[in-house]
Amino acid sequence: MSTGGIGAVFLGVDVGLFDEKGKLLGSASSPIQIWKDKDCIEQSSTDIWHAVCAAVKSACSLANVAPENVVGLGFAATCSLVAVDADGSPVSVSWSGDARRNIIVWMDHRAVDQAERINARNSPVLQYCGGGVSPEMQAPKLLWVKENLQESWTMVCRWMDLSDWLAYRATGDDTRSLCTTVCKWTYLGHAHMEQWKESDSRDMEACGWDEVFWEEIGLGDLVEGNHAKIGRSVAFPGHPLGYGLTPIAAKELGLLPGIPVGTSLIDAHAGGVGVMESVPDAESKADISDEQAICHRMVLVCGTSTCHMAVSKNKLFIPGVWGPFWSAMVPEFWLTEGGQSATGALLDYIVENHAAAPLLANHAASQSISIYELLNRILLLMTHEQNVGFLSALTQDTHVLPDFHGNRSPLADPKSKGVICGLTLDTSDKHLALLYLATIQGIGYGTRHIVEHCNVHGHKIDTLLACGGLAKNLLYIQEHADITGCPIILPRENESVLLGAAVLGAVAAKKYPGVRDAMKSLNAAGKVVYPSSDPRVKKYHDAKYQIFRSLYEQQLSHRSAMAQALQEGSMAAASDH
Predict the structure, then answer these.
(1) What is the CB neighbour count within 10 angstroms for residue 44?
(2) Distance from first CA to last CA of the chain, Å, rounded?
(3) Strands 70-77 and 261-266, sheet pairing
(4) Sequence-ordered list of residues with C-beta below 8 angstroms from that of 395, at least 6 positions apart, any chain
(5) Which of 90, 248, 432, 518 is geometrically suited to a Cys-Cys bond with 503, CB 3.0 to 4.6 A?
């Protein structure tokens, strides 16, 4: 394979290859299997590893990169929970007993009851995840497995976050990342704060587990053997693992043995690392230091769900928002992590379940554009036809509360439901376009709610950076800018999650002293989208935002009224007997 004079190449898995200037040389993906049954969503680690191997080979081939040019690699993946036995073989986490199904996917909500019971104990560790664990975190899921799948529970030797498992599968080193353990496992990363800096890079003995917490919630057996099942040692993201790529993994991936592999990141956090320093000179603040400037930014990693990442030098406790997490994304900064559990997934749901969708999808395909691009064009036509002052005003009678998969932040209410206000019998493509726009706006108001809530509690966020699939939709980004009043910076390389994973490889290969240095060198800004300067647009969104907030308050009132009616009905029935 000719490499055409390519220098050092960093590989990020999710799979993308980047040069020493942070430019994407090539990327590839490979489909993975998923099983869905109501609240239970499962995957297979074996299947995912095979997909990773196929995608790495494909990306190298497409980019014309030879194995010897790849000098470092890092893994980023969803914060899904992997179960393996002493031999590293999969252990089922499924009611089906199917051993392939050994991953509880991040969005799985089977453990809502377990999360409520854990939160009722008010353990001190909970203040570091917004006051309570989410059913999307690992402790409730682990408790669910123990209570429901006893045979599997006794067989599991290692419980791992997916990105940590991928790094373990590649290197044989089961050191865990401060990102995964702190964000999803209630590990107290700041236990290392006084002892180590990132520059000391080493495996650190896992001294941040709160053993009392695990015993109180009924999972004391996980702290046995120096926490062997959940992590004996942890490291800063990008720390080189073991002796690099093992010969077996190297052969499977089509790479060379011994390539440095960096300690992993959750995919959304890799997006943060891949974009947070992507600030054009025109947007940089001359009057404040670099350390202060980064604290004015929030990264939106917009995909199936959206994660809202902000960092601070001081720890900020924000009710209903995850964190503060020490060194979980940018080393030696505290991370605040907000989120919306369904954004891209919600837009897909709204569009695909509308009567006009099949015909519209055919029209889009015939024009070689996505259905979303076609909807954006329809909205522009409607703006002219209806002679409204600005596109956003088309939705004056349609309001959406986007909590179709609960509210992660800032209400931390997994039981919250979605609301659409203003439906008619219309089934036209124009009606679908309105519903699509109102849903984008509802998601935007959710982001505004998170930003305002964080700023009330000590953040100073005034600039957003966006990456991920939804960031390619300029209508989505413009609505978010108008709704939040913040400029939104898009990165030069939209595949920011891949770049963040590649940063880990670059740091592991000692090309940079640390993650922040690599970010400054490899992040680069693209387009900046500014809020509308039209005062009518601001007034319109301010009014719709108040309606958005009221939809949840109404839902709470309805929930309470129905619970009371059912309770009184049960009491009346009992007294009749």
Answers:
(1) 21
(2) 83
(3) parallel
(4) 434, 437, 438, 441, 544
(5) 518
Give the Cβ contact number of residue 450 at 10 Å: 28
CA distances, 7 to each of 4, 17, 25, 498 (Å):
9, 12, 11, 19
Where do we find the tokens 């997994």? Answer: 414
398: which 2 tokens? 């349609």
User: What is residue 1's predicted lDDT score, i.e. its pLDDT?
Assistant: 32
For 282-322, what is each residue's pLDDT tens digit? 766 667 888 899 999 999 999 999 999 999 999 999 999 99
Q: By C-alpha distance, which of 245, 239, 240 is closest to 258?
A: 245
CA distance 419 to 438: 11
Judged against a pLDDT cut of 80, whether residue 3 lies above it is answered with no
Dihedrals phi, psi of 464, to nearest 5 degrees: -110, 150
Distance CA 318, CA 384 (A): 43
Residue 151: predicted pLDDT = 98
**Helix-then-strand count for the chain, H and E:** 19, 22
DSSP β-bridge partners for residue 404 = 406
Q: What is the identity of the amino acid at 14? A: D
Q: What is the C-alpha to C-alpha distance for residues 320 and 552, in angstroms, rounded to an integer?
A: 15
SS3 assignment for 509-526: CCCCCCHHHHHHHHCCEE
In angstroms, the CA 234 to CA 237 distance is: 9
Tokens of 396: 């004056």
Residues 6+ apart with CB under 8 A from 530: 481, 487
pTM above 0.85, yes or no: yes
How confident is the model over 215-228, as a mean pLDDT?
95
Q: Which two tokens stand for residue 316?
A: 């900020």
Hey, is 276 helix, strand or coil? coil
Joined tokens for residue 203: 């495996």
- Extract the runs of DSSP E, i.e. beta strands, from 162-219: 176-177, 204-205
Write out the two tokens for 367.
Answer: 């024009």
